[in-house]
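Hi U.,

Before I forget, here's the chain from the pilot set. I'm dumping it here mostly so it's searchable later in email.
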Amino acid sequence: MADKGTLFLDEIGEIPLNLQPKLLRVLQDQEFERLGGTQTLKVDFRLIAATNRDLSQSMKEKQFRSDLYYRLNVFPVRVPLLRERREDIPSLVEHFVQRIAGRMNRSITSVPKKTMETLVQWDWPGNVRELENFIERSVILTRGSVLAAPINELMVVREEDSGDSLKAREREHILRALELSRGQLSGPRGAAARLGLPRSTLQWKLKQLGINHQQYRD
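Structure:
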């Protein structure tokens, strides 16, 4: 379907190892066979791939093929993390509030100053997706025209007050999400949704950080 057009593959770092050489063949030879088919088809498309993972680290851990990585890494574009562009947060908050409130037939006209300050200070490990999910929960909880955000869910950490590493802060954030979700990873109330991450990414992070989510279950 993407022939002569553009194919976008999100979360490219989540592709299983056994599928990676098949994708590599398509990129190198520009041909493939349909599942169950016998005819080799030629294809020509522009590929755009995205990931929030460190693929160079995944290569070292033998979770991502180096040949596929270098084939994909022809023209890399790095999108700054949300915490690296905090000046964008107020605009994103306003946008998400209006879009989500409109979808739910709600009228929310303002965001408290303290709430906005808290949202700007938070590090957002899950980036824009986490912010959007948090705003959606806030809109659901709001009963009037002023956004009622559950800011108690956020552990506000100011850069100047913390000597902990980013990894340590991320671990704390994940542990907090597991506590709030009682160890549940998937679903609208699960830890993955609270963090704004795909479940597979959260499971990978849990493994990397040595966290057992089962201990948070009732």
